[in-house]
Amino acid sequence: MDALVYLIPTSLALGGIGLLAFVWSLRHRQYEDPKGDAERILNAEWDDHPKP
Question: Are 45 and 51 in contact (CB under 8 A)?
Fold first, then answer.
């Protein structure tokens, strides 16, 4: 039972840190264009020799 005194605040703190990281990523537009990024990596133009 004494372990819960440490585990509950630790889990709440880690959850809060995760929530803050998620909100930060939303505010800095990390999820703006996921489809464009996925298609850009498959583009043959940038595979071996990119344009100058």
Answer: yes
